[in-house]
Amino acid sequence: MPPPKDVVKIAIQMVGAIPQLIELQQTKPLASVLKDVCDAWSLPNAERYALQYVDGRQTYITESNRGEIKNGSILRLTTSPDQEAERLYSGIQSNNLDVKTDSLKKLASLSQDVTFAQEFINRNGLKQIFSIVEEGNDTGEMLAHTLKAFMELMEHDFVSWETLSAAFIKKIVSYVNMNAVDASIQQLSLSILENMVPTSRLLFELVKKEVTLDRLLTHLQVTNAQLQLKAMALLIALLLAATDAERRDMMDYLREKNIRQFIHKNIIHSSEPLGDEMAHYLYVLQSVSLNLCERRMRTSMDPYSQEQRELLQSLRQTAFEPEGEAPASNFSTERRRSLCAKEFRKLGFMNNSNPAEDLRRAPPGLLALDNMVYFSRHTPNAYSRFVLENSSREDKHECPFARSSIQLTLILCEILHVGEPCSETAQAFYPMFFGQDHFFEELFCICIQLVNKTWKEMRATQEDFDKVLQVVREQITRTLSLKPTSLELFKTRVNALNYSEILKLRQTERLHQEETLAVPVLELRERLKPELLELIRQQRLLHLCEGTLFRKISSRRRQDKLWYCRLSPNHKVLHYGDVEEGVHSPPIESLPEKIPVADMKMLLVGKECPHTKEKSSGKQNKDVLELAFSIVYDVEEYCLNFVAPTRYEFCLWTDGLNVLLGKEMTSERTQTDLDVLLSMELKLRLLDLENISIPDTPPPIPKPPSNLNFCYDFSHAEQ
Question: Domain ELMO spans what residues (predicted)?
Fold first, then answer.
C-alpha cells in the first residue's frame, strides 16, 4: 500500500551522529518535528535548531517551503537561522580580523537563503555592512566577502536600494574609479551600481555623474572577460534608464570614442567565444542605437518648417543644379515653380507640386528625408546617376527615387525593429552593425541602389512598384540571415542575390510544394508520418537528457544566476539545480533537485505560467511571454518555472515535456522538422520517378486474359 501523500520519507544528518530515517508528516507543525529529532539525539533547546537541505543551495526548511520536500530528501540538523544570524552579526563586529573575515565569508554564503537574510536584516545587519564599507580601507578578501554578502541580501528585495547612504555609494563608486583595486571587488562594485541605476531617477543621476563613460570604456578595454562584462552591464543599465535626450547624448559621446570599432575588433572578433550575457548586451546596445531613429521615423514633415523645406530643396539642387551654376533667377515665379515641379516629378515624388505631402506619412516620416539627404551628400555620384538615369527613361519604366526611398526606409525599420522595446532575453545582433558608424544610413545607401538594380532586372513599370519592393525585402532579409560581418560583405552578397536568383529560389520552393501536393504523394506522406513523428519524439527526449542552461529572470533586472535542468537517461526523473557561470554540462549527480515524471500533471505556456502572472503589474515583455513555460507537478500542484534562452529551446523543451506527459507535440518546430524529414524521405522514395509525372489517380488495372495458355512449360524445354 503506498504511503499517504502528506507523509514523506527523509534522512536527517548531524555532524558526529548516526543519521535518522524518519517519516515526516507534513500536517505536523515543524516545531514538533524538530523537537522529536532533537529528542532522538538527546539535544536540549530544540528551538535553537533548524533543518536545511544538504545539497544545492542548502535552503532552510520553513512552514512555507516544507511542501517542497520530496521522498528520499537528505536534510541536516543545523543552527536555526535566527541563532546563526545573531552569531554572524557579532562575528562581523569582532576585532579579530580572522574571525571577522570568516564571519563575512559565511554571511556571503548564507545570505542566499531568504529565511536567514530576513533574520539578519531584522537585526539591522545591513547597517554593520555599511559601516565596514564606509569606514574601512581594506580592499582585499574581507571587502570582497562584504560586497558579496550585501549583493545577496539586497537580492531578496526586503530593503529598497534608495535607502543606501551617500557615503556608501561614494565608496562603491571609488572602487570602480580606482586603478589599484582587485578585479573581483571592481566586478562586485559594478554589479551593485548596475542594480541601483534602474530603481530611482536620483540614483541614476548619481551613478551617471560619478562613474563617467570614459571610466566604463577603460573597464571595457581590459583583458578580464568578467570585468568587461560587468562594465558593459552597467553601461547598458545607464542607457536604458536615461531619457531620450540623455541617451542620444551618451550615444553621441560613445560614437566619438569609437566604441563600435572597439567592440567589433576586441569583443566580437576576440579569440574568446562570445558568452550569452555579452551577446545580450550587444543586442541591447544595437537596439538602443537603432531606436534613436524612432523620433524622426514617427515625425511627419512640416511643410512650414524652413529647415525641412531646405533639406527637400537640396535634393533637387544636388540632382539638377550643377555646382557653380546659378538657378534661373530671371525666370518668372510661375515658370520657376513649374520647373521645380517638373524636377520633383523626375526625383520620383508622387505630389510634385507639393512634395512635402509625400513625407506626411509616419512612419517613415522624416527618417526617409534624412536618408535621401544622406545618400545625396555622401554618395553624390551614385545619387546623380540614379536620378538622371531614370529621368532619361520612358515614363512607364522610370524607377521613382523618392517613392522608393520612402518605402525602403519603412522596410528597413520593420526588418531592424526600429521603435520596438528591447527584449529581456534576445541575443541576436548583427556583427556588421558594430563595424560602421551611421549604420542605418549606410545600409540605406546600399539598398536604394539595390532597388534601382532590381528594378532594371525586372524591367519594371510603375504598376510593378510593390512587386519590386517585395523582391528587395526578400533580398535584404535573406542576406541578413547569413549574418555578414561587414557592410562591404553585405553589399557583395545582396548584389549577388539578383532577381534571377530570387526567381530560382522561389521556383525551387514552389516545385517542391507542387510535387508534394499530388494525391499519391499525400497518401505516402500520411503513411510515413507516424514513423517520423516517433523519430522527432526520440530526438526531443534526447535533447532533454542532454539538458539546457536556463537563466533566472526577475522583474527588476536580467539576472546573472544560472540553473540547469536535464532528464534522466531512463526518462523517469527531471534533475535540476543552480550552477556557476561557465559550467555548460554539469553531471546529473551534481543537480540536487528532482521531479519524478510520474508526478508531472500538466504543462503551462505563456500567459498561463505563474511567473508571468507575477510580473503582470509591471510592463509586460512580449518575448518573455513567448519563451515562458512551467511544469505543474505533485498533488499540491507546485510549479517549476522556465524562461527558455531561445525560441528553439522553448520548442524542444515543450515538445519533450508533452511527450513525457503522453500528449501531442504542438510547437511550430515539430511541424518544421516533420516537413524536412518528410521532404527528404519522399525525395529518396521518389528518386526513381524523377521527370515522370505522377497521375492524381492510379492507372486502371487491365482485365484478366481469356486464357492462361501463354504460360511457359519448362518440362518441354528439358526434353
Answer: 307-480
